[in-house]
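Narrative of activities, Objective 1.

The group set out to show that a structural description can be obtained from nothing but a protein's sequence at a throughput compatible with the screening campaign. Below is one input-output pair from the validation batch, recorded exactly as produced.
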Amino acid sequence: GHVQLPPPQNVTLLSKDFDMILTWTPGEGSPPDVTYTVRYESRERMEKWIKVPHCKNIHRTSCNLTCVLRNFFVKVRARVKAVSGRFQSPWVESQFKEYYLDVELAPPVLNVNVKDNLIHVNASFPLATCVESFSWMYDLNLWEAGSEDKKKYEGIFRKNTVTIDTTALKGNYCLSARSSFQSIDFKHSKFSQPVCVLLNHKG
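Output recorded for this entry:
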């Protein structure tokens, strides 16, 4: 009798916050010392499972595949097995996902600098270095606190700063932004938490 370990469960290839991550949960009754090994294959070369060096014999239950993927425009899937001593579980496979089409965006973090009668705003994104070349954009909203009337600045290239003239504005103003990305359809993240600033406040 060959003893098998319980296989990992809920194996999911997840596109989250600009990253492609494989997640799973331990099989029921897994021993405490269990480790996991991950491989992936792409639709370009089916049946060729590629090793992921940083996800071999790991204790955690996720593996970031973003910068491992050689081609962001091809569907990939991943698989994971549990290992403990001489025993191992069967491999469990995820569904196919494509980074470019399936990527889920996170809201950017706003950096707001008020100087004289100008606000300088730029957005930073939690991007892995290997995807920095994609043309992420962001949309920015500005409004007076309590008002529904938002001034919109749309399609700003990710590395660009927006400068807003505040000469005519007085009071408490808020800014919020979302990431946007044009693939086959247009995608955007949720808006970031508002950052509010007091403008032209004498005293």
